[in-house]
Amino acid sequence: MNTAILRITAAASLCVSAFIGCAPVTSIRYDPAYIPTTLPSAYDAGDWATVLQENVRDGMVDYARLASDREALDRYLGLISVVGPESTPNLFRTPSDQTCYYINAYNACVLRAVLELYPTSSIHRIDTPRLDQGFIFRVDRRAVRLAGLRHKLKVASRGDVRVLFCLSEACVGSPALSEQSYRPNSLLEQIRLAVQQVLEDPNLIRVDDRGRTVFLWKRLMTNREVCLAYYRRVSGSRRGDLLGFLAHVAETPLRERLSAASSYGIAWMPMNRQLNDSNAVARARTAQAPDPD
Fold first, then answer.
1. Is residue 270 part of a domain?
2. Which domain holds residue 177?
3. How many beta carbons lie within 10 A of that of residue 58, not counting itself?
4. Which of 223, 215, 213 has its CA nearest to residue 199?
5. Closest-CA residue to 136 (of 125, 126, 127, 147)
6. Which positions ≥6 away from 27 have C-beta within 8 Å?
7. Which of 4, 151, 211, 282 has the lowest tally of Cβ within 10 angstroms?
């Protein structure tokens, strides 16, 4: 083969590899002022609860406000950087303790990733680090990516795949961020509410009767086997599919709606990558409002 062609082919291969396998990676820096110098005797997610109460409404986040006053978020991130189920197991004795820790830690890290790029219309862009793998956080005294935190959450929850419904990915096409932190004494009810909210969100689940297709949120599609394992375990059935799983975790009348679509095909729901920014939504509504007479 011509030497020039070989050089061009090699260069093209390097470009493709860089484009696909060399996505940018950002290591999140922590302010030492917010990292505890002595280990606390108890785990307290109060700062995270404050972040949610002050900045989240109806699942949308006021990132401009959070960016201007992030002390509570930084304190919470500093706390979870040195305590956790692995490094301080005495503070997280039950599966519920551990599950809440990982849900809250995941959602807090997502907000921190947004602040790294804010202002932005989306953090799911080709020119930014991938949310799953492109940000490195310090959690439980280990460097970890969000995909790693999700794995730890699945283990802590004993395979309860419904915990995935509690994780926001900072876009309209993901579960809404709760206005409350997850707490062991109310965990099951909070998970139940998160599941119903996802199932009722047309950005995540949509039944197309004309096309006999149910469009499903990407996280359900990529975790199909985990969903089915959970469904078989709790239902006692040896068979099942994603629609059967969804009908099982849904409440009426949505359960009846999904059961009626049990013979439909399934397809990936196109992801709405718009940032879950309350200010952007408000601007869009203002722009769409009719001019006064």
1. yes
2. 24-276
3. 10
4. 215
5. 147
6. 135, 136, 143
7. 4
Which own/partner pairs from 227-231 qualify as long-range (CB within 8 Å, at least 24 positions apart)? 227/161, 229/159, 229/161, 230/159, 230/160, 230/161, 230/162
Q: Treating both helix axes as pointing N-terminal to C-terminal, what angle do 187-199 and 95-117 enclose, rounded to 10 degrees?
A: 50
- Is residue 7 in a domain? no
Residues 6+ apart with CB under 8 A from 233: 159
Q: What is the pLDDT of residues 74-99, one digit of tens each?
A: 999 999 999 999 999 999 999 999 99
Q: How many CB atoms lie within 10 A of CB 19?
A: 10
**Mean pLDDT of the region 63-73:** 98
Q: With DSSP H G I counted as helix, E B as strand and the rest as coil, what are the percentages for the chain, rounded to 5?
A: 50, 10, 40
Estimate the crossing angle of helix 146-156 against helix 95-117, to 10 degrees. Answer: 170
Report d(CA 252, CA 258) in Å as an integer: 10
Closest of 194, 192, 112 to residue 149, by C-alpha = 112
* Spatial separation of the C-alpha atoms in residues 194 and 172, rounded to whole Å: 15
What is the token pair recorded at 194? 């998160």
Q: If you average pLDDT over residues 133-158, what whole number do you get?
A: 98
185-191: long-range contacts, CB 8 A cutoff, minimum separation 24:
187/96, 187/99, 187/100, 190/166, 191/160, 191/162, 191/163, 191/165, 191/166
- Please tell me the distance from the alpha carbon of residue 84 to that of residue 102, in angstroms, as a whole number: 9
Token readout for 259 is 């059961």
- How do beta strands 60-61 and 56-57 pair? antiparallel
- Report whether 215 contacts 205 (CB < 8 A): yes
Asked if residue 19 belongs to a domain, the reply is no
Q: Which residues sit opposite 139 in a β-bridge?
A: 142
Classify the C-alpha dihedral 98-99-104-106 as positive or negative: positive
Q: Is position 14 within any domain? A: no
In the chain, pLDDT over 70 holds for what percent of residues?
A: 88
Residue pair 47/75 in contact by the 8 Å Cβ criterion: yes
